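FAQ: What does a ligand-bound record look like?

Like this one, built around guanosine-5'-diphosphate:
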Amino acid sequence: MTLETEIYKRRTFAIISHPDAGKTTLTEKLLLFGGAIQLAGAVKAKGDRRRARSDWMKVEQERGISVASSVMTFDYLDKTFNLLDTPGHEDFSEDTYRTLTAVDSAVMVLDAAKGIENQTRKLFEVCRLRDVPITTFVNKLDREGRDAFEILDEVEQELALDVVPASWPIGMGRNFLGCYDLFNDKLILVDKGKNDTLTEGIECQGLDDPKLDELLPEDALEKLREDVEMVRGLCPEFDLESYLAGHLTPVYFGSAINTFGVRELLEGLATVAPSPRAQPTKDREIEPTEKKVTGFVFKIQANMDPKHRDRIAFIRLCSGHFKRGMKMKHVRTNKMINVHNPTLFLAQDRELAEEAVAGDIIGLPNHGNLRIGDALTEGEALHFTGIPSFAPEILQKARPEDPMKAKHLGKALQQIAEEGAARVFKPLIGSDWIVGVVGALQFEVLADRIRTEYNIPVIFEATSLYTARWVTCDDHLKLKKFLDENRGATGDDHDQEPVFLARNAWHLDKAQEDYPELEFHKTKEQA
Ligand code: GDP
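The answer part, i.e. the structure of the complex:
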């Protein structure tokens, strides 16, 4: 098989949702269809595999949430899917955000009773930054939920996305009978009692097919016909270009727990979801079919093995054909790395057991030299763009229990910041470190890591700080003036870049007003 064909087969995607919408359940069902998996980290906390995980993951176990992302690869309909799992709990959204920089499309799962929730919206916004195409799955139709029209309307209004239903639900809750597949003119009925068997759809010649009269009760069929007529009047036709540009979402209805609607979703992804896309760098776009291998680090996971202080750097391959044992250039340090021991996430029965292509993810053991956003290439000095670092929403002071360990703590925090697990700022005045995260639970995980990995018991304390903004200005002198005049409210991040530490929203607004030439950034590009 040629490199091109291998690459075009890839579907690298993630699922975005608010906790409890059904992401884990859907993931399990997708894997069921894929029939196979190499699990890097289990889907969710179940059974022994969990217990074997490392110490700080106790936090995760105790709370029953999933901190670690993982990659799951499976084949279906001659496509190879890479599903990048993302932590569901809202306190770990930063990892989730980063993972979204490594996918080519996303599935948005909504709970039919709840519609778009807080976390759905945030994650969607990250997808929009990169125009990631979205496929929507409205879940839990086996329960009483909202009217399908209302949900479509909400998606359209709140996310400014065109919606095109791919299927239409027949009934809901206890009276949920199935869906009509609008793309393929098929009736798919719920097969009560047969949970994990895959019911074949029944082909129909449109909604006037007399077959339907035998298969559906009269009132349900009448409603289906009415609904579909209305839907076809209200919604645009599916337009591939518009979907790929991130302006339109096909919407599937189903019930993940009953494996209902999952096959249609997967077929949809196989058919229309994009294969690996070109990736932006400072100088040029990297086409996936370029012969030379390139990739970037989008995530670093610490402590996969508690006995070693190893971290795994997850790399999204952007081009070429990777083979175990290759030498790759680490662009930031200009050093060659011998990649003899990568983790490859492989579908079962894949011929290419030692290889990976653009769109795939590889994991490299790493002792702190690889950072989020770093490029690996066969020599070219590339800088991938669009891998953001997010302004923290909660800031706390960090100090060691033992004051003699202040210097060690500084080093540990520097490493953690480089890894991308938190923001770390050194205020110009004072000796404390300010650590910023997007979710409060991250402090617990950090304290645990710093204690076990660096042997430094650390205390986090509340501050009166509201948020941090990276400050830039084309005019060097103006920036310097700002920093001089605001010594009490500025500091450096781990790359020695200046940040403004605001006490409240007013303080931030005022600074922006007083220094109109300066830019205050909510995100910072990595690297
Ligand atoms: P996550 O937090 O998004 O990963 O959600 P889970 O997959 O863990 O699901 C949250 C809860 O919803 C669990 O109790 C699931 O059993 C339940 N659930 C998931 N899918 C369905 C569904 O299709 N119907 C119903 N009734 N419950 C579901």
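Follow-up question: can I read anything off the structure? Yes, for example: The chain has 15 helices and 32 strands.
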